Amino acid sequence: MTFSKSFPDNFLWGGATAANQLEGAHDVDGKGLSASDVFIFDINAPKETWLDQWAGMTHAQVAEAQNPASKKYYPKRKGNDFYHHYEEDIALFAEMGFKCFRMSIAWTRIFPRGDESEPNEAGLAFYDRVFDTLRKHNIEPVVSLSHYEMPLTLVTEYNGWPNRKIIDFYLQFATTVFKRYRNKVKYWMTFNEINCVKHHPYVSVGVIEENHPALEQAKYQGAHHQFVASALATKACHEIIPESKVGCMISYQILYPHTCHPDDIQACEDAQRVSLFFSDVQARGAYPAWTERMFAAKGVELQKERGDDEILRQYPVDFVSFSYYMSSTVSAHPEKLEGVKGNLITGGIRNPYLPESDWGWQIDPKGLRLALNQLYDRYQKPLFVAENGLGAVDVPDSNGEVQDDYRIDYLRLHIEQMQEAIADGVNLFGYTWWGPIDMISASTSQMSKRYGFIHVDQDDMGNGTLKRTRKKSFGWYKKVIASNGNDLS
Ligand code: BG6
């Protein structure tokens, strides 16, 4: 008996982006500053410090960023200027045959401070134009409500998501955009990589460590409020757009025990569960029993209001989406072993069997098949690969073209593993490559960490013409989509 490896007919092939890394135009048409608009990039700073802000922002850094006289460079304010290039960029996505485009709505274009009672019409009108352009090209929008870009005011004046008031501000934003775009957007995601709060609480839940001496409490209280907000947004979305599909989105970094020693197996299981309980809550509608023990060990006492558990139970998500870039290993005794280099700030022990990217991320296509099977076994809900990609140093050749065969290889190997997962019986309905066009890196704020099929002429300090050029991978992905994933030659 053979098992079909074919992608379903209506499979959503596309690319994924986030407003804060792409749009630029941070002060245009009434936009307010977001949490991500205060990340600097300094080419003269030692490389090993480039991830520091991502791990934790300080008051002094935020205050300096709010000062119009600051001389620092803030790359996410500039993005790749999609705000003024969206027609050209979407036409290029259409040329590749995109069926869908994952993007986020910048909360600060709609509610610049986050606590206003009325939305900003110019911000709403911008996304009307974007969605209309996508429709013109038959590209389905897949929209994240929150992708590391909450209004900065909600961080500085409200102390972020540990404050329950943020649920109301988020719901006001969510219902405003559901109503406005009810005829234009069917697929929604409530929070990008909701499980990453443990690594970068500032950008995930708006927590500046100095404000929250009990950091673990602040992180998980913030996450609890996001769970409630996500469930209520799911409810509202279904009411306003009956045919809508709402998903959760987690970062799924597959973990392997470093050895078969039972202590390593247990350490690995513990680490993986800490990551997966976020989608457990959102997809199954309840905290797993073991989290009580974990919270006790961390000294966390969740403040829940009466009715919270019922809200989580009643309004789980329709589908589960995730980002998948890499795997790493876990040891009960990490101090004796070599750690992964440059693997974001997620840590882990180096896997001797895997190659790594220019940024030290260990490349593991087979881990994607495992991830898909694990998540499908666990939730039995449709899955969507919301991010997968290779950040690399791209050097244009003498004709100005980027011959990125390494990116094609990465993509081919991951698509092959999705085929295997489909043959295993996994219900997978979409795949969006991160990111189809070069933009600012989330973690290091570099432009030179390029993922795109489309090269953008801009350097790490924001110099360049912004000209868009097709890379070799552009034509390759186009062929893959045209053959619905069958032609990987
Ligand atoms: C994911 C984020 O974690 O990884 C994206 O959702 C991000 O926003 C992507 O861009 C790649 O990470 P980086 O740091 O290389 O841009």
Automatic annotation (TrEMBL):
<dbReference type="Pfam" id="PF00232">
    <property type="entry name" value="Glyco_hydro_1"/>
</dbReference>
<dbReference type="GO" id="GO:0016052">
    <property type="term" value="P:carbohydrate catabolic process"/>
</dbReference>
<comment type="similarity">
    <text>Belongs to the glycosyl hydrolase 1 family.</text>
</comment>
<dbReference type="InterPro" id="IPR033132">
    <property type="entry name" value="GH_1_N_CS"/>
</dbReference>
<keyword id="KW-0326">Glycosidase</keyword>
<protein>
    <submittedName>
        <fullName>6-phospho-beta-glucosidase</fullName>
        <ecNumber>3.2.1.86</ecNumber>
    </submittedName>
</protein>
<dbReference type="InterPro" id="IPR001360">
    <property type="entry name" value="Glyco_hydro_1"/>
</dbReference>
<keyword id="KW-0378">Hydrolase</keyword>
<dbReference type="InterPro" id="IPR017853">
    <property type="entry name" value="GH"/>
</dbReference>
<dbReference type="GO" id="GO:0005829">
    <property type="term" value="C:cytosol"/>
</dbReference>
<dbReference type="GO" id="GO:0008706">
    <property type="term" value="F:6-phospho-beta-glucosidase activity"/>
</dbReference>
